[in-house]
Task: inverse folding
């Protein structure tokens, strides 16, 4: 049973992915014939990848990262796709990288993934339709809050008695201490 | 023992209801004996809930799997420590725990005020007992921890692996301490509304309670971030999960309250606003508890969905909102300000702006959290809102707050003059401009990071200048050394200078957040002996060499551990281990990351996958291929440092001691129009 559980994070399923990515994995093939076929396939892949890639690797990576950052993971509740540790999520991320390498834009990739998995995995709401309502809340809160505050400030500036300070009885000793304290505080402020 | 626990819960529930009725009726009728009965009910309820909680823990420790709750969150191999924390591991127990903490705080508050604030205490006791009765009612009628199953299994399901972490034993209780402590100022606010005593008395009485609640809530949130960072295994500490957001909501309004309350204390303004803020803070605390355990919104925290509880909580929240609004409306004439706002260039205005930002942030976070539900309710289509949305809307607000943090404490009360502004902001603006120039020249181009450091340095300078001015003035007047003057300055006004320390911690924390703009990440599959190089934004390079993989069975789990040697610029500095743990009972796998901490960055290692893991466990594959995710995370340690500074600042403000001595300076005579609403105690205070 333990092995079955640990199989959940067994990278065996994604070995092919790692092999193709790194080109140095032991494919554990037995027999010379099979090894030759594997070498041939690997060589073809090495040739084929640059041929099919329509965009530079760095640009493709940026596109893939942008697309991945806009998706929540269908395999980890509440987590973004970029951080979901599930092996299925890793496969999805790889498929996105492949799509980016083939020249698809981040937006196209996101729409494609959502078409397959469902709209609920979109992490950034659209700026149209119902999604726009999500974006409207901050400006709305600030505008309404600002207006309310402005109206309240107007009232607060007229409502309530104004503060007037009348001189109270201060002893000579207190006066000297107060003056000294104020003078020192002023000096300190100027020095700062 | 469990039978005694269940009976104790029932008696506590009945007693809480009794006490609530006695409190409200005693206050209304002026019956001292009824009020005393209510107060004694508070103590009795605490004792009874303590008995029930002990019974639950005893059931966990005694492996009594006939109880559904125990069977769902424990098993025989679980360590004693986690069996004890099983009290708050699930929804049912955490509601009992909520009630226990609330009963504890209620008893302390009632005991503290047994001889003073007599006019408040009947309604305070009544309100606290009503809230307690609600939670006990939910526990008894919808989520009973003593519910028996039809059969007794040989073993339980075990505790969720992610909860088997020391931060999880600290994080939920701290958060709950924050939520429950906010009930005390809430109860006093309700009492002030019911009794009509809306002067500053209820605020000064609950000042320490509010700070205490804020302290626990802040630390609870930070502990949660630490847990996410070390346990979830993806390198983040905050991902705008609905439950994280829910804990942030009362923090935002609570922080707004801590600031706006000063305006009422100093100037007698914003009375209604302060009442509304503390009412909202408590309501949002209840909302957060509900969201955490209802499972209504998809979250890493929601381990089960309980719609019955959702509806009960919604009903309670709705009733509280309606009752609170009705009370505020009823007393609307008693909120007249004692002074007018003299200038928009004043500390009062800066605090108002600060409140606007906090409340706007609260609405935004709440809206984003509930948007999937709202969109599904109105359109039938669930539209999710993820971290990118929250970051985009909240980062500008956070930066504006950082700016206000520098403005607020320095700008004068009542009215600031141009000269005052120039004198106070000359140094901070100069430092901020210098920092901007240095960062630009060193290649920092990320707008948010740049703004954070510039505004942070502005704010930090205002804080340092405030401390320096106060220390220097005191040193000259009192003839003390600088260190002694600094300590005495803090002692004389702990609240003010403790607040500055909190602000400094906030700035450091924000700078830590800004570091994420320069995160570096790599993922690679390695064989033992192979390495990966990763460059830090600080200029050095780490080389991580995968050494070996080992597997061994441990209590309750099997561990698979990868050892990785770390060299910095070619010099060996550390060996990190990253693990995968397979838990037996729940058939779940959890990650344990390896972290190398430095003062300015974390090197974060995740074991993302293992090739042919079964062979590793059998011992037939000693050199398995492992996939690692490696991150260099600049300034993450600053986040925890900022949290620590904030905690220290709050403790300074909270620390009991003599109130600052009033200067024997001339007393200000305030020319006030007599008000009909002046109560007897207000007149007493003025005369005093």
Result:
């Amino acid at each position: 049973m333990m092995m079955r559980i640990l199989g959940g994070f067994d990278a065996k399923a994604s070995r092919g992915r790692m092999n193709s990515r790194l080109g140095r994995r032991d494919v554990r093939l037995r027999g010379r014939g099979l090894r030759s076929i594997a070498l041939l396939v690997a060589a073809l892949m090495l040739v084929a990848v640059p041929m099919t890639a329509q965009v530079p690797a760095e640009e493709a990576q940026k596109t893939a990262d942008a697309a991945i950052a806009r998706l929540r993971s269908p395999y980890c509740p509440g987590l973004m796709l970029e951080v979901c540790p599930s092996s299925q999520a890793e496969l999805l991320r790889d498929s996105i990288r492949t799509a980016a390498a083939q020249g698809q834009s981040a937006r196209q990739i996101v729409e494609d993934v959502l078409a397959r998995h469902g709209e609920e995995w979109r992490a950034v709401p659209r700026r149209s339709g119902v999604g726009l309502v999500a974006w409207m809340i901050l400006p709305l809160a600030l505008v309404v809050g600002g207006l309310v505050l402005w109206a309240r400030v107007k009232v607060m500036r007229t409502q309530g008695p104004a503060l007037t300070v009348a001189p109270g009885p201060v002893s000579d000793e207190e006066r000297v201490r107060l003056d000294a304290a104020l003078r020192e505080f002023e000096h300190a402020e100027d020095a700062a | 023992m469990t039978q005694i626990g269940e009976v104790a819960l029932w008696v506590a529930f009945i007693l809480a209801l009794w006490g609530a009725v006695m409190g409200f009726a005693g206050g209304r009728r002026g019956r001292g004996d009824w009020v005393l009965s209510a107060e004694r009910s508070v103590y009795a309820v605490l004792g009874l809930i303590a008995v029930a909680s002990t019974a639950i823990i005893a059931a966990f420790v005694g492996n009594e799997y006939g109880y559904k709750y125990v069977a769902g969150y424990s098993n025989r191999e679980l360590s004693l420590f986690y069996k004890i924390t099983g009290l708050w591991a699930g929804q049912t127990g955490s509601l009992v725990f909520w009630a226990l903490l609330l009963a504890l705080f209620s008893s302390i508050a009632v005991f503290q005020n047994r001889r003073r604030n007599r006019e408040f205490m009947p309604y305070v006791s009544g309100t606290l007992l009503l809230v307690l009765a609600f939670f006990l009612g939910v526990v008894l009628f919808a989520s009973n921890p003593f519910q028996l199953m039809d059969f007794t299994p040989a073993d339980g399901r075990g505790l969720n692996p992610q909860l088997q972490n020391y931060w999880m034993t600290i994080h939920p209780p701290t958060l709950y301490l924050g939520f429950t402590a906010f009930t005390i100022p809430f109860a006093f606010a309700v009492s002030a509304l019911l009794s009509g005593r809306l002067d500053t008395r209820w605020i000064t009485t609950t000042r320490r309670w509010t700070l205490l609640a804020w302290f626990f809530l802040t630390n609870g949130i930070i502990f949660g971030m630490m847990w996410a960072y070390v346990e979830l295994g993806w390198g983040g500490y905050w991902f705008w999960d609905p439950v994280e957001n829910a804990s942030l909501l009362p923090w935002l309004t609570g922080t707004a309250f801590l600031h706006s309350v000063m305006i009422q204390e100093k100037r007698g303004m914003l009375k209604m606003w302060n009442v509304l803020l503390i009412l909202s803070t408590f309501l949002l605390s209840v909302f957060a508890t509900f969201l955490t355990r209802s499972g209504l919104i998809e979250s890493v925290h929601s381990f089960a969905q309980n719609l019955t509880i959702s509806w009960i909580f919604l009903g309670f929240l709705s009733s509280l909102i309606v009752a609170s609004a009705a009370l505020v409306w009823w007393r609307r004439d008693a909120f007249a300000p004692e002074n007018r706002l003299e200038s928009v260039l004043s500390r009062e205005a800066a605090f108002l702006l600060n409140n606007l930002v906090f409340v706007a942030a609260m609405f935004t976070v709440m809206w984003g959290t509930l948007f999937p539900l709202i969109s599904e309710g109105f359109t039938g289509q669930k539209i999710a809102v993820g971290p990118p949305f929250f970051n985009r809307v909240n980062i500008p607000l956070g930066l504006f707050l950082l700016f206000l943090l520098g403005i607020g404490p320095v700008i004068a009360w009542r009215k600031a003059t141009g000269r005052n502004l120039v004198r106070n902001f000359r140094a901070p603006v100069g430092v901020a401009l210098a920092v901007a120039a240095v960062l630009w020249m060193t290649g920092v181009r990320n707008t948010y990071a740049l703004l954070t450091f510039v505004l942070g340095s502005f704010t930090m300078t205002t804080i340092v200048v405030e401390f320096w001015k106060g220390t220097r003035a005191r040193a000259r007047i009192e003839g003390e050394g600088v260190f002694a003057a600094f300590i005495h300055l803090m002692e004389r006004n702990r609240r003010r200078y403790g607040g500055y320390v909190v602000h400094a911690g906030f700035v450091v924390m924000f700078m830590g957040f800004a570091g994420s703009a320069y995160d570096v990440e790599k993922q690679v599959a390695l064989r033992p002996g192979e390495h990966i190089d990763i460059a830090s934004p600080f200029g050095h390079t780490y080389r991580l060499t995968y050494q070996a993989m080992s597997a061994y069975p441990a209590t309750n789990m099997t561990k698979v551990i990868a050892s990785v040697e770390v060299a910095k610029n070619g010099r060996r500095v550390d060996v990190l281990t990253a693990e995968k743990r397979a838990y037996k009972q729940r058939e779940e796998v959890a990650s344990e990351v390896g972290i190398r901490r430095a003062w300015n960055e974390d090197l974060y290692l995740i074991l993302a996958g293992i090739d042919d893991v079964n062979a590793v466990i059998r011992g037939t594959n000693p050199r398995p291929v492992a996939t690692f995710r490696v991150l260099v995370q600049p300034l993450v340690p600053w986040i925890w440092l900022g949290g620590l500074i904030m905690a220290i600042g709050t403790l300074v403000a909270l620390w009991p001691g003599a109130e600052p001595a009033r200067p024997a300076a001339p007393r200000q005579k305030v020319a006030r129009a007599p008000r009909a609403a002046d109560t007897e105690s207000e007149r007493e205070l003025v005369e005093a």
